[in-house]
Every structure is written in C-alpha cells, then in structure tokens.
Specification:
This protein has 314 residues and is of the alpha/beta class. The chain contains ten helices and twelve strands. The strands form two sheets. Strands 3, 4, 5, 6, 7, 8, 9, 10, 11 and 12 form a ten-stranded mixed β-sheet that branches. A two-stranded antiparallel ribbon has the order 1-2. Helix 1 packs across helix 2.
C-alpha cells in the first residue's frame, strides 16, 4: 500500500482540479464560479475527495475555507502533477500536428534548384500526410509572400525591408564565378578585376552587391545578360556568351563537362541565407518541423561543402 495508507487507484482524479480551485479561491463560491459548477456540487466533490483520501483537506469556517496541513502538502503535489500533465498533452498535440497539415515555403531560385529538393524529399518521407507547397520567388516576392501570410516562411537572403519580419541565418553563401574550363586555369579564387573584361552573365538578386563591389574596385561591370535560373546561366556560359556570376549554393556539384567554378574573392562578396518569418506570429508545428530539418540538412552541409579551387568534372 502507498505511503499514508491511501489506495490511489480508488481516488477519483477528476476531483483534483476542483480541490485546486477551492484551495486557490479560499471559498466554495469562488471555486464554483471559476470552474462553472454550482456551489453545492463543488462542496460535494470535496467531501468525496476527503472520504477517498481518508483525511480532511480543509478547515471550514463561516467566512472562509482554509487548507489543513495535509491539504497544503497535497496542493503542492497536485499542482506539479497537473502542470506536468498539461505539458505532456501540449507536447503530444504538437507532435501530432507536426505530422499532418499544410506548409507553404517561399524560396529563392538559387536554393529551389539546388539544395532544397533533397530537403523536401526527406521531409515528405518523414511526414507523408503533410501537404507541402513550394513557391520559387525573387527576394521581394519572398518577403511579400511571408507578410501576406501566403507562405508560412521564406528561405533566402536578408529582407531589404525587414520591418515586421525576423531573419534567422542558416548559412553563409559565397559568390562564385562560373566559366568555361581553361579560362582561369590554376587559380584558387578569382578577383573581380580578372573578369571585368568579360561579358557578365549575372544571376538575379546579385546586382546590388556586385555593383557595390565594382564601385569599390573602380571597375565598370559589363553585365550582358541577367537570369533568374542557374540553368539559363549554365547555358549562356556553355555557349561562350559570357562569364557567370552566381550564388555558390546554386552551382551544381558536380558541374557538367567543360565548365568550372571559383569563389569570387574580395570583401563582402558573400551573402547570408536564412529563414524569414513574421515577427509577431509563431510558426505552426508542421512548419517548425520543416525549419528544423532545413537547419540539420543545410547548415552542416554548407560548412563541410568544399569551396576552394575550380570545380571540374572528374
């Protein structure tokens, strides 16, 4: 038998919230108003609990109800137990919610065509009941989609207008030069001046950064073509129409035969990639689960992914 001689299996646990309400209110009337029952029903439940426990929990006067020493001891234990139960139910509810529902993600093209598909495939395998929608958008479109609640969160560079948004970094992405193999043979990185005499194929989203870098270097950047998709840049470079300047994360690994990539050296020639959310609204459980997977898949891989030296086919 448990300590104190009480057979807990004979105690009606549904009476415990009423016990807490009376103890906190100091009266049957206030407890009845708090839990939405009649005063006589509350009094009867306390009598039942005392009978089941075999001890008095309250000393009653005409003006108030006070806890006995046994009641004081029980109150602390019951509060802790109810809090633990509530936490457990919330966690269970969040776990269930994270395995079903819908999630919408707005993403930069540089990620949508490179690293994100593998993460989405892993997420859908782990959460087959979740409907996931991917929207490939430029940075301005990502931030507007998140603000308008069309997407749960975005993945991309820091917002240009961050009001009302949160940015949580995932990785640092260097800017790379994409070129026909042999053009820059033997180098480990390339300075902007080395390609300033070449027609530039610029991937969308990099223009402000590259214009600032050219200004600092006293160069005129000969941008001949701009593209949103890495496949377009690859095609133009492959056919000799220029040298590509692209986010490093967008560069296929391995590259197709005849093409190589090098980091573009110089201060500020990298950008942060992170999670963009609304500042005032927490993510739903299913979106939180996807963000956690993105952190596991992108951050370590980005840190370990080799960057120096030309990327050439084996």
């Amino acid at each position: 038998m448990p300590p104190g001689g009480v057979r807990w299996m004979n105690v009606n646990l549904n009476l415990l919230p009423t016990f807490v309400a009376v103890a906190e209110g100091g009266s049957f009337r206030l407890a009845a108003e708090t839990i939405g029952r009649t005063q006589s029903a509350v009094s009867m439940q306390i009598q039942q609990l005392e009978a089941q426990l075999g001890r008095r929990l309250f000393s009653r006067t005409t003006r108030r109800v006070a806890l006995t020493p046994e009641g004081e001891q029980l109150l602390g234990k019951v509060r802790a137990a109810l809090e633990d139960l509530s936490d457990g139910l919330r966690q269970a509810s969040g776990l269930v919610a994270s395995h079903r529902g819908r999630v919408s993600v707005a993403c930069a093209p540089s990620l949508a065509g490179s690293r994100l598909p593998g993460v989405i495939a892993a997420f859908q395998k782990a959460h087959p009941a979740v409907s996931l929608r991917l929207r490939e958008l430029p940075l301005a479109g990502i931030t507007e989609s998140v603000r308008r609640q069309e997407s749960d969160f975005g993945v991309g560079p820091p917002p240009l207008s961050p009001a009302g948004l949160l940015f949580q970094p995932l990785l640092t992405d260097p800017v790379c030069v994409l070129f026909r193999t042999g053009l820059l043979r033997g180098q480990r990185s390339v300075r902007l001046a080395a390609v300033a005499d070449q027609p530039i194929v610029l991937m969308g989203g990099l223009r402000p950064m590259m214009e600032e870098a050219a200004r600092r270097s006293g160069l005129a950047l000969p941008v001949r073509h701009e593209a949103q998709q890495i496949l377009t840049v690859l095609g133009l470079v492959r056919d000799g129409l220029g040298v590509g300047i692209v986010p490093g994360i967008a560069v296929p690994d391995p590259l197709e035969e005849g093409l190589s990539a090098l980091p573009l050296g110089g201060p500020g020639l990298h950008r942060e990639i992170g999670i963009i959310t609304r500042a005032e609204r927490p993510l739903p459980p299913v979106a939180t689960a996807l963000v956690a997977l993105l952190r596991r898949c992108l951050s370590p891989a980005a840190a370990a992914r080799p960057r120096p030296g030309p990327r050439r086919p084996a």
